[in-house]
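notes to self, project folder thing:

trying the whole complex as one job this time. last attempt i did each chain seperately and stitching them together was a nightmare. two parts in total, labels are on each line so i dont mix them up again. if this works i'll redo the older ones the same way
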Amino acid sequence: MRIRAAVSAALASAGILLVGWQSGVHVADTRSAVAAAAAGNQASGTGTTGTSGAASSESAASSGTTGSSGTAGASGAAGAAAKAGGTYDGDVVQTRFGTVQVQITVKAGEITDVTALKLTDAEGRSAQISNYAAPVLRDEVLQAQSADVQTVGGATVTSDAYLTSLQAALDAANL
Amino acid sequence: MQPTSETAHRLRARTFTCMGTVTSLAVPTDAHKAPQAAADELEAATAVVERLFTELDSIFSLYRPDSEASRLVRGELTLPEASAEMRARYEEAAEWRLLTEGAFTPERPDGALDLSGIVKGHAIREAGMSLLALGMANWCLNAGGDVLVSGSPNPDTDVPWRAGIVDPADRRTLLAGFPLGGAALGSAPPDGMVADGGTRAALATSGSAERGDHIWSVAAGAAEFRQVSVAAADVVTADVLATAIVAGGVPMLNRATAMWDIEALAVSANGELLATGGFRR
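result (full assembly):
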């Protein structure tokens, strides 16, 4: 029991690390040429920030966000070696949560602020950075008509209530 | 929703009553099989599932005075002396209690052991494994409103099963739909009813509308949610988390969606909806 719990916890941690690592790889892919040309210690320092941020985050969702800020850090470092202060726009990056672009503010070589410039996905909706359940209107959820479904879910139906349920009608039609 | 023309395959269904509710097994008619052979296969598969449910019910039902669970509640038996099946389910339920920070619990407020929150999900999971072991690739198992599917209602396609979720305010109407099964995990979702989170095989719904007596609110007072549906890869996760969210309210909903790869649709007491991306159009 404890072992299973420990293994699940370890797997979950590994999963979170993996997301952070994948974000890092993505950054490496898109920025590798520039990053290689940038000041080595600054670029690697930024990378470390991104990774450790992801590891300490509580969920994969927020680690994805942290990874994106790593992106901005990398491009900022690449663009101006980040010695002086200023704001730097990151590249537009495709993540599993949608399109993301961030802006960082640097003072004396340290990132002091991270702002999201773009957080939308392909359909123009607000990007879902996490899998947060948000308030929706009835016509905003996936619609279904009883003639168009093969099964009906609902809070546990007693066998008496089943007789008058939609599921009973479906079952009767398929007998 | 898929256009109805895609449901050209007629379904056949069989039902049985167990655990105080009705379970139905639906399979698409198979054009490659003789009608009688297909009917016999469905009869045999339903019998396997029914036997499995009945065996578990005889152990865990608190409505049967002679069940092992009833003897435990009466103190005639202690957990260390209980059957391996009983101890395994208790262990699983206790693990879920830890993971949900107490929102899901295998004990009633009076301290009596009550594993009914996990037994039905377990029965559906075991039934699903039996159906796969019988070589059945396409089926939809619905036990009292909790659903587990395999494959597609249109064999040899990626078309998902389409599940409707009843409106707790009017059980004759559907509140929402959700695609189950169909395309293999990782492949592109089919057109139409697209779930952002990819395909899920299980959909479980808990609430106070029908039989809320086995859900105990963590905080005293009226339940925040009237009905909660959770879609997940496996039916026990879906079932336990739906139950936990009804008991634990918004904090548990947020915890569940952050920690598990699930989609959730919650109906609050005043009829408002909370949904993750996979439930949105």
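what i see at first glance: The longest strand of chain A covers residues 110-120.
need to look closer tmrw
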